[in-house]
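Handout, page 2. Input:
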Amino acid sequence: MLKKLHELTSDESLRFEQKIIAILELGLEKFQQQHAIVSLISGDEYTIKYVVSSDPALVPGLSFSLGQTYCWHTLQANEALAFSNASQVPTIATHPCYETFLLESYIGARIVVMGELYGTLNFSSPSARNKPFSTDDTDFINLFAQWIGVEISRHIEQQKLKQRIELQQQMEEMALIGGWEVDLINNKIYWSEQTRRIHEVPDDYEPDLVSAIEFYPEGESRDTISDALAEAMATGKPWSLEILLRTYTGKVKWVATQGRPEFRDGQCVRIFGAFQDIDTQMSLRHELIEKRDEAERLLKARSAMIGKISHELRTPINGIAGMLQTLKGENNKDIIESRVAIAMRSADLLVRLVNDVLDYSKVESGQLELEEVPFSVRNIFDDLFYLYEPLAKKKGLTLNVDAQFPEGLRALGDPGRMTQIYSNLINNSVKFTEQGNVSLTARIKEKAGREVIAVTVTDTGIGMGKQAIESLYQPFKQGHSGISSKYGGSGLGFAIVKELCDAFGGTVKVSSREGQGTRIFVELPINAVNQEEVVQEDYIGPQNTSFEHVKLLVVDDNEINRLVMESLLSQLQVSADYAVNGLEALTCIERATEPYTLVFMDCEMPVMDGIEATRVIKETYSIDGKMFIVAMTADTSDTNRQACLKAGMDAFLTKPVKLEALRSVLSEVAFPQITASAIPGAR
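Output:
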């Protein structure tokens, strides 16, 4: 019997379930019984897991109350239990199991799995045995039960391991993370399937240590990974790097690689680690950083103004910084893309807000020019919700945005300025509301024969009295002084809203009481258009007018600005010379074989700025005023404009430079009969 048991348990060709059934059949032979069962016991429930029986009613999954089985006595005894003639045992003869199933003989033992009770192994028969169960029989059933317990434990561990492996493979695929191992004893390299996919190698490709290093481009990347590998093998230091990789197909991408050495008897015998494709994350990260840096440069350059309207900038900055922080260590691709999208929208809004603030003098003086571009009306309100919902949630507020428009509604107008109006309103409501909610509703309605967007912003905030409402539209006013000290801000936001609404030809009204919240009504006329009617003129080609005889010089220290000018001029079929500062411009003018007729001059540059360079040109090189100098600057203030004109500049172009404005300047120079007033911002 022991030999049979050994042969059975050591047979690797049998599956787990087959071995259990074979054990039960062996037990039936040993104990001369009709029913063999492995049970699972949970609380008071007894469930058949495996069974060999002549009774077709006994099947896996069949459950009984534990108290109605002989196994209850086995558990109470805490050891193997057996009886050969139940009718002769008073405690068994009256047992529900005997009364129901008339099982005369029984032998059973506990099954323990991982230190916990799993169930029982039991054999039974409706026939009494000719002789009682012996000590040898109880030893055998204990041995059977112990072996089954070990096998179940091993099977559970194997299933867990299989699940972990499958989960790891799924996670590798989702996060683009692979594994690798270098066997330095046998000089072999193992790459997981995901690592092979990242390298884009063919199915039959077998890497070695030399070829694996060659996947990193020569120079910094290859030197960095080689140094990390050498240091790990020499000192045991692990590494974690973000580095460039050139795949088998020639594609260059960013990867994250981690490595850890393993030593034996002082010798490095193995190096293993993880490998992740982070090319998308790095591209997005760099783009976000560039946008953030651009916004920060604008903030520093206009620190005085920003200090007064800080409440308008905090939300998008928080969106950028917060999302960048949460990207660190995040591997889930869907989460990364979602957070990057929020940060990108925040970065775009931040840049727009900064530009809007710098335009406030135009808004105040009524000189603001609204754009006329096609846009999706719904997108404005979707973006507002995604931007301000986290801010409201952080304060424990509920933000509701209910925007109902005809499907696919598009309009011609200025979506940036429109967004600025609604952003100010929501931002103020969130700012001055301590508990409750902020709601925005938006509808299209007809008024005086025109379609308007009717927006209502309602909050449960501190509200305001009649006097505060009257001063609301005045710049830098915030009701009583306690408001400013408690909530901060410049008091400029609502003044901007009022001026922008006037520029749109719309209206803004406020209804509020102290302590009872505020309701703001905004109506802005729009020019709704059908999708097919929207025509976007992204490219304006050169007209019949020729500027070939105009000799140009572009002076700008910024490479991107120079490239933009080169692209715009190429559309007008005009070539130019380029200089990076005022001093270099003077050199170009002095060495020119024929004089320049037109110079585009940036104002702020290192070495020599545009103002000083213009003075020198006008005094020394501009014969009879024939050299036309145009200022190119992002500073639209009157102070800067006057400084440019005082230095001798003839016209004034604001950045970003538009193609039609550039064409007008060239026309003025090439064809003097066109008046200077045709040039945008020329005088």
